[in-house]
Amino acid sequence: MITLCGMPLSNYYNKVKLALLEKGLPFTEEFVATGSKDETVLAATPLGKIPFIRTEHGPLCESMAIVEYLEAIAPQPALLPAEPYAAAKVRELMIFANLHLELVARDLYAQAFFGGTVSEGTQARVKKLLDRNIPAFKRLAKFAPFVAGEQFTMADCAAYVNLPLIGLATRIVLGSDLLVEHGVDWKAYTKMVGERPSAQRVDADRKVAQAALVAKKG
């Protein structure tokens, strides 16, 4: 049995959770806050990052490594095409969504979602990078109807949890949804993916966690 460790407010936790649900793999969940200094956590994820999983063979961290592991132990239903080039293109899209879009936009989250402030310099840097990176992602993405084409893949596990955050953060902090500005219709895409049972489960659990956080602060 796999144990998914982290919290439902994390987009990367939800990326892995989507993959687990899509594959129908049995798993349990264990709440672990990001940045934990607990030695048992650091033994599994040395940087204290979430998500990570516990398996019968030992722990595994980093969401990209985890979804690749899930694909290897449960090839069906496939989240990667069988043809090597097509599979590489899915991985390419996942890297773009994670590193060139979400990781850049993440510098806005403190102001967008957590009541902090982001300097004008940081805002300008993020906008400059996203004005370059979003059109590059758009060149690769097909949205036909899924990110990589006709089939739901690992790339969708990444895009579904990341694109809304990028759109909302840029709109709140920069005054414009840069995804929409560059022609990426993420709302129609996430609405379509959101009809999948796996996405509905992820969204429902995230909303419960959000409500609990609000209640705790209030």
Helix content: 55-70%
Number of domains: 2
* CATH topology (level 3) name of the largest domain: Glutathione S-transferase Yfyf (Class Pi), Chain A, domain 2
In terms of DSSP E residues, the strand content is: 5-15%
The major pleated sheet works out as:
4 strands, mixed
Residue ranges: pLDDT <50 for 5 or more in a row? none
Number of helices: 10
What would you call the structural class? Answer: alpha+beta
> Care to count the β-strands?
4
The run of helices and strands is: EHEHEEHHHHHHHH
Overall pLDDT level: 96
Assigned CATH architecture of the largest domain:
Up-down Bundle
Distance between the termini: 36 Å
Strands in their spatial order, largest beta sheet:
2-1-3-4
Spatial extent as radius of gyration: 17 Å
In short:
With 218 residues, the chain is of the alpha+beta class. Helices cover 60% and strands 8% of the residues.
Description:
A hairpin with a 2-residue loop joins β3 (52-55) and β4 (58-61). The protein folds into 2 domains: 2-73, Glutaredoxin (3-Layer(aba) Sandwich); 84-196, Glutathione S-transferase Yfyf (Class Pi), Chain A, domain 2 (Up-down Bundle). With 218 residues, it is of the alpha+beta class. The protein has helices at residues 11-23, 39-42, 63-73, 84-105, 109-113, 120-140, 154-174, 178-181, 186-193, 197-217, and strands at 2-6, 27-31, 52-55, 58-61. The model has no long low-confidence stretch (mean pLDDT 96).
